[in-house]
Design brief:
Order of helices and strands: HHHHH
Number of helices: 5
Helix content: over 70%
Shape: globular
């Protein structure tokens, strides 16, 4: 038995459903507009945006106590957990490496880590304003 009740699990599940749809639409659209690059721009964008949003929401909720626990679970774990795609990031990075695109794989990894951490920091700082 989990320490979580059914309502919390439903919040996470519904949020994950919405976040996954958002990721599919946004990443797919961006990847269709950038085929020339041969670089997973859509995945990078949703991961950085997700990092920015989680930082922003954290900053706002910690300083203003605006969101209750169920809404936080819905947004943080559900929506943003479904929206960000670090498993896809890992898969795409490995695929680039297997294809011999070491520079593209390295840039992809560095950008995700550096921009992701930076976006969380910026979002958190903005949320605390």
């Amino acid at each position: 038995m989990t320490p979580y009740g059914l309502p919390q699990l439903l919040w996470v599940g519904f949020g994950g459903f919405l976040g996954s749809i958002g990721r599919f639409v946004m990443a797919g659209a961006l990847n269709r507009f950038s085929p020339v690059l041969g670089f997973p721009v859509g995945t990078l964008t949703v991961n950085i945006l997700g990092c920015l949003l989680i930082g922003l929401l954290h900053g706002v909720t910690e300083t203003r106590s605006l969101l209750g626990p169920d809404i936080r679970i819905f947004l943080f774990i559900g929506v943003l957990g479904g929206f960000t795609t670090y498993s896809t990031f890992g898969f795409e990075s490995l695929a680039l490496l297997k294809d011999g695109a070491i520079l593209k794989a390295s840039v992809n990894i560095i950008l995700h880590v550096f921009l992701g951490l930076s976006a969380v920091w910026v979002g958190d700082a903005l949320g605390r304003l």
